[in-house]
Hints:
The structure holds 2 protein chains of 2 kinds. By secondary structure, chain A is an alpha+beta fold. Chain A contains 13 helices and 12 strands. Chain A has a 6-stranded mixed barrel, surrounded by 4 helices. In chain A, strands 2-3 form a two-stranded antiparallel ribbon. In chain A, a hairpin with a 2-residue loop joins β8 and β9 (183-191). The longest helix of chain A is centred in the last third of the chain and has 44 residues, at 269-312. Chain A is elongated. Chain A starts with a helix and ends with a helix. Chain B is an alpha/beta fold. Chain B has a 6-stranded mixed β-sheet, sandwiched between helices. In chain B, β1 (16-29) and β2 form a beta hairpin. The model of chain B is unreliable at 241-248 (pLDDT under 50). The chains are: A alpha+beta, B alpha/beta. Chain A binds chain B through residues 1-2, 5, 9, 12-13, 15-16, 315-316, 318-329, 401-403, 406, and chain B through 65, 68, 70-71, 90-91, 94-95, 97-99, 103, 105, 109, 111-114, 122-123, 125-128, 131, 170, 174.
Amino acid sequence: MSWIxxxxxxxxxxxxxxxxxxxxxxxxxxxxxxxxxxxxxxxxAQVQVASxxxxxxxxxxxxxxxxxxxxxxxxxxxxxxxxxxxDADALSSHTVAPDIAAVAPSTSKSSALAVGTxxxxxSVVGTTPAWLSVRARSLSEGRFLTASDVSSEAAVxxxxxxxxxxxxxxxxxxxxxxxxxxxxxxxxxxLASAGTSSAQxxxxxxxxxxxxxxxxxxxxxSRTSVQSIYVEAASxxxxxxxxxxxxxxxxxxxxxxxxxxxDFSIASQESxxxxxxxxxxxxxxxxxxxxxxxxxxxxIGVMNIMLVSVTERIREIxxxxxxxxxxxxxxxxxxxxxxxLGLAGGxxxxxxxxxxxxxxxxxxxxxxxxxPTATIGAIVVAICIGMAFGVYPASRAARLAPIDALRSE
Amino acid sequence: MSSDITMPIPVIPxxxxxxxxxVQKVYKTxxxxxxxxxxxxxxxxxxxxxxIMGPSGSGKSTLMHILGCxxxxxxxxxxxxxxxxxDLSETELAVIRNQRIGFVFQQFNLLPSLSAWRNVELxxxxxxxxxxxxxxxxVEVLERVGLGDRIMHRPSELSGGQQSRVALARALVNSPAxxxxxxxxxxxxxxxxxxxxxxxxxxxQAGNTVVLITHEEDVAAAAKRTVRLRDGLIESDTxxxxxxxxxx
Lengths: 409, 248
């Protein structure tokens, strides 16, 4: 009996028991759809997080001050005021750090902004002109801070899109005056919208020259110290070189001989990404595992139904043997039947998964990425499950003695 | 015949379809042993029409299973159409059943989901005959049993007599050495019984060897030879030459 003939016979058997075949497929179908959706959900979340982190700026290193230790209580990263404007100046030297393209020190503080009777409290960031390129931002209007703004401690500010809207509504803010704390500032530019990162709303901030911030807004001990230094590497390939140079230079400047006792820390975009995506990966593995178990249950369903099918069709098997089917042919017929059930369940499950991936994002506002590899893989797995769980019922059918099979009622 | 031969010599013509010698069959159920056949020898020649009769428990079903290569004897030999089939494997027996034997079962055992011609072509599928040939052959055989206008009907759309004809057509389709029928009229009324018996008769007239198992005297009467079994042994054979020709 040829393979084509075996396929035709198996198809006949599946078609003549529609309800049973449908229920068998359902188990596999749900399992496959669940696998595709959970894996797609996990991958979607990873893509989302990665793009959010990349929107912070490319080739970015963030240097934070070390921790303070007061009477044995360690204050945590950023609690010490160990980074200064001088550190930033030193890093921007091309002879010291050839792989560093730009450096932007920054300090920020929450302050009240007022225009007439309207007020709004937001994060005021003191920084240098390099901030714009380092953070990969752009302007929608006006100009950014200039070097002369910094040297002259000019009272100028560049507003984020949200901040501008809160203070000025839809009116054009460029050229208007906004009072930060008690000092009047002239709005010289508007930042283009960048969306919300996981840490903060990137559109709700006011950028001022770092010198102005130190002397006229924040004052106190923070006159020369900075909260963080953003470093942009020349390219993504030189990111690790830039990391080494920044690390070495700061250790020298701070007279620290052992790297483990450094009073600062450097985080790269990559390390942020790794942390964030590893959380998502764990989630994907967990959900995928649960979906895999449902697939396994579906497979056991196939075995169960195939065993019932063998028992129910015992006379048919007996007859086929009596008229010339040998055990191999019978085994093959039941295996092909199980594999076809798996294939059909797999394809339908993949379709359901894809439909779910198109519909669900509208309901739960999340991204689901369906990869073709995962879909084809899932269908192949479905066939294999059908086959694997069909082996035992098929060999039971093949082993039946023709007279016992014919005799049974 | 020369004078120094005092005993009759068993002469075995080449055209014997069935030749079984001293066949025994013992079933073991736990520690219990049941001898269903206790030494049966039987020769059936080409073109014969034989009825095998006997009360239940006489071993006639066991004999039928052994003749049909559905089961193997515990001891003894079986030569079917010149080939010794006593020690064949399950796979080899499947080929013998496919090529040499045409079965007609009591319940006909047609597959309900298949049309008449698809049921008839089944043995050809297992024989590896190409699809186009199978259909032509199935239709030809169905016409021979008078069902040329029912080839697309499913078994549930056919009467009992018509179903038995489909079963007969399926038995004939591979041109077997013999037709082996197990109570073929057991599920039929009188009219259908007469109908089916006339088909058997026609087939036998055309030269087919027919062996049927039955417990009905009037069915056995249609056959040319009747073999009666009792307690696993042959009780009588209307041919009456058993003791003389075949030593047991």
